[in-house]
Amino acid sequence: MITLSPVTLERDGIRLEPLSPDHASGLAEAVTDGELWRLWFTAVPEPAGVSAYIEAALDGQNRGVMLPWAVRELESGKLIGSTRYHDILAELDRVEIGYTWYAASRQRSKVNSLCKLMLMSHAFEILGCSVVGLRTDIFNLRSQAAIEALGAKKDGVVRNFRRRKDGSIGDTVMYSVLVQEWPTVKHHLESRLKRHAG
């Protein structure tokens, strides 16, 4: 059975730092880059809601169902987003990666591939997970494309699965990577990063 605790992950100029209240001002600034909270089908907080967002994430960590990070770009020193493990099922050796968002200026860069590589490497190679899940809203087509580009397999659509922040009920698209698929997915992600670097 997997055991999770806060850990710093770092590679190629990006650091995943265990989320803390000290990250509030930097994340509030990052979320204004593209006004990400205006996407009605995401859970990205408004600038004024970042502290409560962090508090909820840390509550999930205390309950053993989440492990959240802030994403820092080392060259600029700026916080550029956030991500986390969530819906942790330790008895099944399963985590999901989600609640992921990046400042608009860092989207479609190496950042997402790099963060997913670090998070999945930690899950499969350090924690001993048997499966890593990912999910997104049925209307978040960009997120679906990004998840599929990582090499995750689509498990299906769960109808009427979550209440969105605008009060509507949303369908959720579920994906996963199994441990036996990880070597191929890892090779794919490493290849993507080499192309970004070239």
Fold and architecture overview:
This protein is an alpha+beta fold and 198 residues long. The chain has one domain: Aminopeptidase, CATH 3.40.630. It contains 5 helices and 8 strands; from the N terminus they run E-E-H-H-E-E-E-H-E-H-E-E-H. An 8-stranded mixed beta sheet has the order 1-2-3-4-5-6-8-7, sandwiched between helices. A hairpin with a 5-residue loop joins strand 3 and strand 4. Helix 3 packs antiparallel against helix 5. The model has no long low-confidence stretch (mean pLDDT 94).
Write the layout of secondary structure elements.
Elements lengths: L8 E3 L2 E5 L5 H8 L18 H13 L3 E8 L5 E11 L4 E9 L8 H17 L3 E7 L3 H10 L2 E11 L5 E10 L3 H16 L1
Helix pairs in contact: 3-5
Could you tell me the CATH topology label.
Aminopeptidase
Please provide the ordered H/E string of secondary-structure elements: EEHHEEEHEHEEH
Structural class, judged by helices and strands? alpha+beta
Helices, by number, come to 5
Shape: globular
Ends: how far apart?
A: 40 Å
Stretches with pLDDT under 50, minimum 5 residues = none
